[in-house]
Write a structure and sequence with these properties.
The protein is an alpha/beta fold. It has a single domain, classed as Ribonucleoside hydrolase-like (Inosine-uridine Nucleoside N-ribohydrolase, Chain A, Alpha-Beta Complex), CATH 3.90.245. The protein is about 35% helix and about 20% strand. It has twelve helices and eleven strands. Strands 3-2-1-4-5-6-11-9-10 form a nine-stranded mixed beta sheet, sandwiched between helices. A two-stranded antiparallel sheet has the order 7-8. Helix 8 crosses helix 9 and helix 8 packs parallel to helix 12. The chain is globular, with a radius of gyration of 18 Å. It starts with a strand and ends with a helix. GO terms for molecular function: purine nucleosidase activity. InterPro entries: Inosine/uridine_hydrolase_dom, IUNH, Ribo_hydro-like. This is Nucleoside hydrolase.
Length: about 325
């Protein structure tokens, strides 16, 4: 086995692609999946995650449910509408029922047990709000040495999507994001909107995925609401695979090119709440935050082919 991986997720169309990417990669030891509120409420993200793993023929992977709300200020969060009411454009019911029961333990407890049992450091890929990860690092500081790195999808250098300056995963729980990204010392790679938008895939790519087999066909069937949204954003028929881009880096280190910048998160209650403050000046002078690897570029065709081949070809 190659990369040992835990995914923390809020499925979500792009989360579905990301989970399948890891689940269908032979060089990934997918230790577990934990769920968090986000694109849809926790009960739905948890059901989606379990049934997506069943779709990928991975009932061996344990799933545990985590946070149902942000650390603070419950009223500031709202679920996204981009993914449809069930997170998968109304097609979640088409997924097979999960045969593996939901873990009795919560998300943080599952992560702790998996980290402590691992004989080598584990990569964690949070692709939803960072509430579970903040709780893990706060309550169990001893597991830091077992984390190889955190590769997260979140943040924006320039334009946001939930607000003018804030990306959804960060905006959904900025207090948790600040703890993980700006205040902790676990190695962190941030994969922001600026790059994930450039990695968008078009209708030809989606048609190849749909023709590849049952899993590809199912993944493509989840995209109608997502396509409707990104038709306006991109100006053509295509979607942005935000979370799959981050998981590609988690399982293939270096497929994205990163630069190190000081990063802080605005966790105030004003109009810039959730903003990722990336100091790209030649001589940074940021009073808070810490140096973080920020993914800024990739070979676009290589990245798209990597994701497609893994999703289409399976293990």
């Amino acid at each position: 086995m190659g990369t040992k991986l835990i995914i923390d997720t809020d499925p979500g169309v792009d989360d579905a692609f990301a989970i399948a990417l890891a689940a269908r990669s032979a060089d990934v030891d997918l230790l577990g999946v934990t769920t968090v509120f986000g694109n849809v409420p926790l009960a739905t993200t948890t059901s989606n995650a379990r049934r997506l793993l069943q779709l990928c023929d991975r009932p061996d992977v344990p799933v545990a449910a985590g946070a149902s709300r942000p650390l603070l200020y419950r009223e500031l969060h709202r679920s996204s509408t981009v993914h449809g009411s069930d997170g998968l454009s109304g097609h979640a019911a088409s997924l097979p029922d999960a045969t593996r029961p939901l873990e009795d333990s919560d998300a943080v407890s599952l992560m702790v047990s998996l980290l402590e049992a691992s004989d080598e450091p584990v990569t964690i890929a949070p692709i939803g709000p960072l509430t579970n990860i903040a709780a893990l690092l706060a309550a169990h500081p001893g597991v830091r040495s077992k984390i190889a790195r955190i590769v997260l999808m979140g943040g924006a250098i320039t334009l946001g999507n939930s607000t003018a300056v804030s990306e959804f995963n960060i905006w959904a729980d900025p207090d948790a994001a600040r703890r993980v990204i700006a205040e902790d010392d676990v190695p962190c790679v941030m994969v922001p909107l600026d790059l994930t938008h450039r990695c968008a895939v078009d209708s030809t790519w989606l048609a190849k995925l749909a023709a590849s087999g049952p899993v590809g066909q199912a993944l493509n069937s989840f995209t109608p609401d997502y396509l409707a949204h990104y038709r306006q954003v991109l100006g053509y028929e295509g979607i942005v695979l935000h979370d799959a881009v981050a998981v590609a880096e988690a399982i293939h280190p270096g497929i994205l090119r990163a630069e190190t910048y000081p990063v802080d998160i605005d966790s105030g209650l004003g109009p810039t709440r959730g903003m990722t403050i990336v100091d790209r000046r030649a001589v940074p002078n940021i009073s808070t935050g810490r140096p973080v690897e920020v993914a800024v570029d990739t070979e676009l065709d290589v990245l798209r082919e990597f994701v497609l081949s893994r999703l289409a070809g399976g293990r």
